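As a warm-up, study this chain.
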Amino acid sequence: IEQFQEHKVRLEVQPSFVDDQGQLVDLLPSQALGLPQRYHQPWGGRLQRIHVLPTEYGTIWGITGEILFELLKLVKH
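Now compare it with the structure written out below.
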């Protein structure tokens, strides 16, 4: 487990975004659905850990890194 690096990313819910052509893409039409004001803008912003394992064959990360990290924790205990 000591070989793993732990990094974090910030996850935020984006109910809409502006595409490459400058057009608004409304993924969750919160106003039209009558949802509370707080859902009209991005929310969340929670941190998510990412386990990374550099190897001579390349970097293992994402779901594969998470599975290996958790498996090694189980095996060590």
